[in-house]
């Protein structure tokens, strides 16, 4: 009889170990962590607020340095042009809005860069926008609202402006309406 109890006991222990060993692990909830400091996404949501960030190097093959179109009706929070290399001749730079990817019809910011100058031009959502030299560019609040058919365009020109090879970047942030 001891052999029967021993056999039953061993069978129960083996069944328990087999169940524990072959059973599927419990599902783990997502932790939501990022593998590093960068978020590489064209849309992020922070507490239900949709943000559309954009960053690109300057287009050196055209006088249109940057052109971006938000994918949803959005309000421009910030547009910033960085020119990291000195210009060879004087140029005028404009940040604007248009239904075309290579034109500006509504001016949001404007700046004249002298020859041999590096610098920044920015546009922010407010009743007026100032460039780095403090010259205000008045824009209406609705000018900062972009539909999915509108482009944010950064262009430059000048008498011999196309002789420049500008190096830098455009950085923009839209908030979804």
3D architecture notes:
- Helix content is 12%, strand content 41%.
- It has 177 residues and is mainly beta.
- The chain has one domain (46-176): Jelly Rolls, CATH 2.60.120.
- Strands 1, 2, 4, 7, 10 and 12 form a 6-stranded antiparallel sheet that branches. The protein has a 4-stranded antiparallel sheet with strand order 3-11-5-6, with no helix packed on it.
- A hairpin with a 5-residue loop joins strand 8 and strand 9.
- It is elongated and about 105 Å long.
Summarize the structure.
The protein is mainly beta. Helices cover 12% and strands 41% of the residues.
Largest sheet: 6 strands, antiparallel
> What is the CATH topology?
Jelly Rolls
What is the straight-line distance between the termini? 79 Å
Rounded Rg:
29 Å
Shape: elongated
Find the count of extended strands (DSSP E, 2+ residues): 12
- Determine the strand fraction and express it as a percent band: 35-45%
If classified by CATH, what would the architecture be? Sandwich
| Low-pLDDT sequence parts | 127-134
- Tally of distinct domains: 1
Helix/sheet category: mainly beta
The residue-averaged pLDDT reads: 82
Helix content: 10-25%
According to CATH, what is the class? Mainly Beta
Element order: H for helix, E for strand: HEEEEEEEEEEEE
């Amino acid at each position: 009889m001891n052999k029967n109890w021993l056999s039953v006991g061993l069978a129960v222990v083996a069944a328990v170990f087999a169940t524990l060993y072959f059973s599927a692990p419990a599902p783990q909830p997502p932790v939501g962590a990022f593998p590093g400091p960068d978020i590489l996404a064209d849309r992020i949501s922070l507490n239900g607020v949709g943000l559309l960030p954009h960053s690109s190097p300057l287009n050196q093959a055209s006088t249109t340095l940057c052109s971006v179109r938000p994918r949803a009706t959005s309000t421009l929070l910030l547009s910033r042009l960085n020119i990291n290399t000195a210009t060879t001749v004087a140029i005028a730079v404009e940040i604007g809005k248009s239904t075309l990817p290579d034109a500006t019809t509504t001016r949001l910011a404007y700046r004249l860069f002298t020859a041999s100058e590096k610098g920044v031009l920015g546009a922010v959502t407010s009743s007026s926008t100032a460039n780095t030299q403090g010259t205000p560019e008045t824009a209406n609040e609705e000018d900062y609202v972009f539909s999915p058919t509108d482009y944010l365009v950064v262009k430059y020109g000048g008498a011999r402006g196309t002789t420049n090879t500008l190096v830098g970047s455009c950085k923009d942030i839209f908030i979804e309406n």
